[in-house]
Design goal:
- The N terminus is likely disordered.
- The chain is built from 6 helices and 9 strands, in the order E-E-E-H-E-H-E-E-E-H-E-H-E-H-H.
- The chain is an alpha/beta fold.
Length: 174
């Protein structure tokens, strides 16, 4: 049992948690009321066979506020794609029973628009171009560049903290 099982949830933001980029917090109510049905946490499918890659991807997803769901084979991923609509999928380029190319074909067969991000151990340019041409959303080489996957995921989810903010200099000289 958790707090969501008991009706409304009230959250009071402390001064330390308030974003300095927001308007004065005293100008609007700081109590937020949400019901369990209103709360949705995005989930991302992680399809990889290498545990070190899964661990690194999991850390990034949790940091972005995304619930990771794991599959180690194309078969497990297909079963998940058939049952649920995920926000996106991360897939290692080569799996035990196939590759990301199989997932792209299956995704298209289901009529899903789920973005697929390919994670490659080699990061070769021909592999990058092939993945993008086949419909992958993005292609990243492992080990990951810090912040790169986080930027891609937040852009996919429409995180307002990554939207460009007007420069204060534009107000002075604009």
């Amino acid at each position: 049992m958790n707090a969501f099982d008991h009706g409304p949830l009230s959250i009071e933001l402390t001064v330390a948690q308030r974003d300095p980029g927001l308007p004065d917090p005293d100008a609007f109510p700081v109590f937020l009321t949400q019901r369990r049905d209103d709360v949705s946490i995005p989930s991302g499918l992680v399809v990889c066979r290498d545990q070190s890659i899964c661990g690194a991807l999991s850390e990034v997803l949790v940091h972005c506020g995304v619930a990771p769901v794991f599959a180690s084979t194309v078969r497990e991923a297909v079963l998940d794609i058939a049952k649920r609509d995920r926000s996106f999928a991360l897939c290692q380029d080569a799996l035990r029973d196939g590759s990301y190319e199989d997932l792209l074909r299956i995704r298209d067969a289901f009529g899903s628009s789920m973005p697929l991000i390919v994670i490659s151990r080699t990061g070769e340019w021909p592999d990058y171009f092939r993945a993008i041409d086949q419909g992958a959303h993005d292609f990243l080489a492992y080990p990951l560049i810090p912040g790169e996957l986080q930027r891609i995921i937040r852009n996919l989810l429409g995180d307002p903290y990554l939207l460009p903010r007007p420069s204060p200099l534009l107000r002075l000289f604009g």
